[in-house]
Amino acid sequence: MPVYFIHVYQRGRLAKDKEGKQFDDLKAAEGEAIKAAREMAAQNVRAGKILDLSSRLEIVDGNGKLVSVVAVKDTIPIRDRP
Question: Is the pTM of this model over 0.85?
Answer without folding.
Answer: yes
